[in-house]
Design goal:
The chain is mainly α. The protein has one domain: Helix Hairpins (Orthogonal Bundle). Helix content is 71%, strand content 0%. α2 runs antiparallel to α3. 10% of the residues are buried. The structure holds zinc ion.
């Protein structure tokens, strides 16, 4: 599989799921994201590495779906907030905890 950008992945989630996501709505989609985060914690506590991989993928997919509902470009939002440096201390690496 060739590597694609976050933007392309978010677009794929839109093509696959936007109709269902719109029917479900933002509040229920946020609850699903929370559920997936709980499943990631369970996988970690079990020490199940392959399940951890699956759960992080699910979390990312749900986050993309939620961004589609909010009409947010996740890739741009992430780079705008973290432009190659920590948004708080503006350091790279972050030095927030050194203070
Ligand atoms: Zn920092």
């Amino acid at each position: 599989m060739t590597n694609k950008t976050i933007k392309e992945f978010q677009q794929l989630m839109k093509e696959l799921y936007i109709v269902r996501d719109q029917q479900r709505g933002i509040e229920k989609s946020l609850l699903w994201l929370q559920t997936e985060q709980g499943e990631l914690i369970d996988a970690y506590l079990k020490g199940d590495t392959s399940e951890i991989v699956e759960e992080v993928a699910d979390i990312f997919a749900w986050l993309c779906s939620i961004c589609n509902l909010f009409k947010i470009d996740l890739e741009s939002a992430a780079w705008n907030k973290y432009p190659n440096k920590c948004p708080k201390c503006l350091g790279s690496p972050c030095s927030c905890f050194k203070k």
